[in-house]
Amino acid sequence: MATFAVSSGTINPLTRTLPLAKNTKPLSLFSLSISLSLKASKTPLRASSMSYDKQLAAAKKAASLAARLCQKVQKALLQADVQSKSDKSPVTVADYGSQAVVSVVLQKELDSASFSLVAEEDSGDLRKEEGKETLQRIMKLVNETLASDETYGNAPLSEEDVLAAIDSGRSEGGPSGQHWVLDPIDGTKGFVRGDQYAIALALLDEGKAVLGVLACPNLPLSSVASHNPQDPQEKVGCLFYAQVGSGTYMQSLDGSTPIKVHVTDLDNPEDASFFESFEAAHSLHDLSSSIAKKLGVKAPPVRIDSQAKYGALSRGDGAIYLRFPHKGYREKIWDHAAGYLVVAEAGGVVSDAAGNTLDFSRGRYLDLHEGIIVTNQKLMPALLKAVKESLNEKSSSL
Ligand SMILES: Nc1ncnc2c1ncn2[C@@H]1O[C@H](COP(=O)(O)OS(=O)(=O)O)[C@@H](OP(=O)(O)O)[C@H]1O
Ligand SMILES: [Mg+2]
Ligand SMILES: [Mg+2]
Ligand SMILES: [Mg+2]
């Protein structure tokens, strides 16, 4: 079979063929949820007194398997794999496949009776006549991925199971109970370009983020500041994870010993570097550069896709992340919940442009003031001041 080279941010598709699933015997997700519901716990526990170790292990497994699926697709990416959703944003077989894998793994590993998932994708387009072929491909990918883990080897999912797994992400979330929050591929544009993307999974308990897992298959294990994309020896593939009150850890996606990570302790903004969206349509680059100038930041912006920015910042690759969407854009909780906890547990601060902490308890949207800013505790006061001044200048120039 032909192979693909993914190097220096470009993808060369050489084949349209993906391997067939090893197993074809269908297992209904319904029967799966019945058997798992018998294990459901009836005792609600409060966020502050809980350990989330079991959920964390399940989330790491789910995100790592989803990353495996995404890596396979990114290596073989075809234009035909990229569809446009009704809001014109791209979606690929990997976005759907990743969402299905995470949903199935979480339900298999944990109590499925109380399972609630707030996730980006839904199966609407896949249920249409023209979505049939794509659905077939997603089902094969999902089954191949699950079969690659020995625990799930013998029970392939049917098309209906895959559709149901994707649609389990329709929860509205909210302030009570536990809700998983998933972006199956954050940075789909980066994914399609062959650049950075992340599988971002968080758990909310009573409206607060208590777990955050970020799988970043293309992020170098060493700092992005010293990253050399020409170096074939350079290792990539990071898994960041955080549990409330327990710090943030990073390991390689192929399973190295985890190391505890911290945001930078820099206190001079002149020495800081800052991250922003790769896509200018997603964040006002002019505004970020005006803020950076006020702070005296000398380094040029580091533009990378997705919540990989939160991961990179949590280990001190850069000191500041600025995100100012164009007017009218409403942020979604899955674009920030996991990244928020990864940074907060590494000692960083994430707020809106007015200094308010992010509120994930209000449903699928994040309602906030103007934008999102992220840095360490020492730099935050100066950053807030620069943000306020730049926003005032911007509004008085309109
Ligand atoms: N107009 C607009 N403004 C702001 N943000 C938008 C906009 N459109 C999309 N999105 C969301 O941006 C997510 C990608 O995150 P980033 O901006 O960090 O990455 S990127 O550099 O743009 O690729 C991206 O996440 P994914 O859809 O999961 O890729 C979107 O949720
Ligand atoms: Mg999207
Ligand atoms: Mg996203
Ligand atoms: Mg996405």
UniProtKB/TrEMBL annotation:
Annotated pathway: Signal transduction; phosphatidylinositol signaling pathway
Pfam families: Inositol_P
Record-listed Mg(2+) binding positions: E120, D183, I185, D186, D335
Catalytic activity line of the entry: 3'-phosphoadenylyl sulfate + H2O = adenosine 5'-phosphosulfate + phosphate; adenosine 3',5'-bisphosphate + H2O = AMP + phosphate; 1D-myo-inositol 1,4-bisphosphate + H2O = 1D-myo-inositol 4-phosphate + phosphate; adenosine 2',5'-bisphosphate + H2O = AMP + phosphate
InterPro entries noted in UniProt: DPNP, Inositol_monoP_metal-BS, Inositol_monoP_superfamily, Inositol_monophosphatase-like, Inositol_monophosphatase_CS
This enzyme's EC code(s): 3.1.3.7
Record GO terms (molecular function): 3'(2'),5'-bisphosphate nucleotidase activity; inositol-1,4-bisphosphate 1-phosphatase activity; metal ion binding
Function: Converts adenosine 3'-phosphate 5'-phosphosulfate (PAPS) to adenosine 5'-phosphosulfate (APS) and 3'(2')-phosphoadenosine 5'-phosphate (PAP) to AMP.
Cofactor: Mg(2+)
Family, per entry: Belongs to the inositol monophosphatase superfamily.
Domain of life: Eukaryota
Gene Ontology BP, a term: sulfate assimilation
Protein name as it appears in the record: 3'(2'),5'-bisphosphate nucleotidase
Top-level EC class as recorded in UniProt: hydrolase
Organism annotation: Nicotiana sylvestris
Keywords for the protein's UniProt record, in alphabetical order: Hydrolase, Magnesium, Metal-binding, Multifunctional enzyme
